Amino acid sequence: MKSLDDTIAAISTPAGEGGIGIVRLSGRDAIAVAERVFVSPRGRKLQEVRSHTLVHGFIVEPSTGERVDEVLAAVMRAPGTYTREDVVEINCHGGMLPLRTTLQALLRQGARLADPGEFTRRAFLNGRIDLSQAEAVIDVIRAKTEQAERLALQQLEGRLSGKITGMRSAITGLCALVEAHIDFPEDEIELKTKDEITGSVAGIRTELELLSKGYDEGRFFREGVSTAIVGKPNVGKSSLLNALLERDRAIVTEMPGTTRDIIEGSLNINGLPLRIMDTAGIRETRNLAEKEGVRRSLRAIEGADIVIAVLDASRPLEEADREVLAKVRGKRVVVVVNKVDAEIGGFSLEDSDPGAPGRDSEPSPPVIRVSAVRGEGIDVLKEEVYSLCIPRGPFSQREDVLITTVRHRDSLDRAADSLREAESSLQNDVPLEVTALFLREALDHLGEIVGMVTTDDILNRIFDEFCIGK
Ligand SMILES: Nc1nc2c(ncn2[C@@H]2O[C@H](COP(=O)(O)OP(=O)(O)OP(=O)(O)O)[C@@H](O)[C@H]2O)c(=O)[nH]1
Ligand SMILES: [Mg+2]
Fold first, then answer.
1. Protein residue with least CA distance to atom 11, ligand 1
2. Where, by residue number, does Mg(2+) bind (predicted)?
3. Closest CA to 327 of 370, 259, 281, 383
4. From atom 26 of ligand 1, which residue's Cα is the shortest distance away?
5. Which of 226, 231, 342, 424 could cross-link with 314 by S-S, CB 3.0 to 4.6 Å?
6. Ligand 1 centroid vs 325 CA: distance in angstroms?
7. Does 150 lie in the same domain as 67?
């Protein structure tokens, strides 16, 4: 791990031209280093001004005395700063040249170029934010919808941290109880007490499992839901894509086998971002291009979070439709019956059994009746897709916390496993030391989320995702 002793500097605004650009410095000597390249026409000294002061002046290359840029320097003293160290932010003119020359002058005066995410890493190492909050910083920057940003902000504010801390202290309490009985073996632990502890452990475990399940919802908001429209040729998949996007994205003809490649479009349903793929109609074919298209359709089904399986109400169901329905089994599926404006008398889903469950517990997929050409049923379809992704309703109306990274989900799952072990050790006649061990293990796994327990490896992986200057 790099030391916290040195002073780091980086350009913190994106590359390109802008009104202003900011070079940020953080560390013990941040103000002194900035002072060496800064001249105020009124003779003000950065080291003498009060914290959180903006000082007007010039960046000057000390070796030549040449003026590099006219700037405003923001001086912020520890600990009330982003990193909890002394920070100077130099507001330059927003071109690459003034920014780079300013940065280089600072590097020559003893600052070191910051690594990606190093400012935020220092905020974490200096205890201003915990690890889950540091991760939220990157989510805030990358958020593509308001909903995704709201989730990231909640995590940044520490809602997940609060939840984890609460559960940790509950487990710590239980652990103390168990350990108290280890220390006083003559004080045989009563069966009733054992049952009570088991009950409490199970309660926390259920909470962990719920939190872990919310991962998909968080991911959907953050990365978008990949949605594949599939079906046999000519059922109106491309027409449905166009109806959903409300524009003429894909080619539609009355010839079966029109679409060969995957056509993508983006849609936003109440803040939920969707990447929708229109695919080639699935059928046996000798045409090489179409064959490849079908192969891609099948692959799209595999990779999709949601599959919209389209049927054609203007024709009787065929074996080809049943094959498509069989291929999407086990996925989150919406069945769309399209062309209801031209429905034939005998059309029936009855014998197709779209819900024919792979496993008995699998519920039948919802069936939505649509006319892609008339735009009927499209809103109902959107609502159905939304609730398939977010079964517990819009997040803004809920109190629960959503996790957004695989790392958090893995730690939650491991913590839940440890608690399960603790429960079974209490139920069976295993020494209490073992129970205590499992409880401690759960504590460690939860600690990983907020960064109480961590390794350089985890930190590197997290902060390497950041850009330089953040
Ligand atoms: N009456 C009616 N016709 C429709 C509807 N949706 C699509 N069609 C027609 O069905 C034909 C096929 O539509 P496409 O959208 O190209 O079907 P597709 O499933 O993408 O076909 P492939 O790309 O060949 O697999 C076109 O002539 C459309 O106008 C509908 O809701 N009602
Ligand atoms: Mg098509």
1. 254
2. 238, 259
3. 281
4. 254
5. 342
6. 19
7. no
- The CA 235 to ligand 1 mean position distance, Å, reads 5
Q: d(Cα 370, Cα 363) in Å, to the nearest integer?
A: 22
Indicate the residue among 130, 158, 186 that finishes a domain.
130
Lookup: tokens for 187: 């004080």
Token duo for residue 408: 């958090």
* Distance between Cα 363 and ligand 2 center (Å): 29
Residue 21 three-state SS: strand
pLDDT of residue 222: 77
For residue 255, give the ligand 1 atom closest to its CA: 24
Q: Which domain, by its residues, includes 76? A: 8-130
Cα–Cα distance, 390 to 384 (Å, whole number): 10
Question: What is the per-residue burial (b if ≥16 Cβ within 10 Å, else e) of 344-362?
Answer: eeebebeebebbeeeeeee
Tokens describing residue 23: 């070079």
pLDDT at 295 over 80: yes
CATH number at 119 reads: 3.30.1360.120
- 361, β-bridge pairs: none
Instruction: Give 119-167 pLDDT, tens digit per residue.
Output: 999 999 999 999 999 988 888 888 877 777 888 888 888 888 999 999 9
Q: What is the pLDDT of residues 32-65, one digit of tens each?
A: 999 999 999 999 999 999 999 999 999 999 889 9
For ligand 1, what atom is nearest to the CA of residue 374?
Answer: 31
Closest Cα to atom 27, ligand 1: which residue?
254
Q: What is the mean pLDDT of the chain?
A: 90
How would you classify residue 275: left for phi > 0, otherwise alpha for psi between -120 and 50, otherwise beta? beta
Check pocket membership of 308 for ligand 1, CB cut-off 6 A.
no
Residue in 370, 334, 384, 386 with CA at minimum distance from that of residue 229: 334
Specify the pLDDT at position 356.
Answer: 47
Q: How far is the CA of 289 from the centre of ligand 1 (A)?
A: 20
Answer yes or no: is the C-beta of 257 below 6 A from any ligand 1 atom.
yes
Residues 107-123 have a mean pLDDT of 94
Whether the CA torsion 444, 450, 452, 457 is positive or negative: it is positive
Range in 1-10, 266-275, 350-359 the model is least confident about:
350-359
Residue 132 CA, distance from chain mean position: 12
Are 379 and 248 in the same domain?
yes
Pair (31, 52) in one structural domain: yes
User: 90 in helix, strand or coil?
Assistant: strand
Number of domains in the chain: 3
The count of other CB atoms within 10 Å of the CB of residue 453 is 15
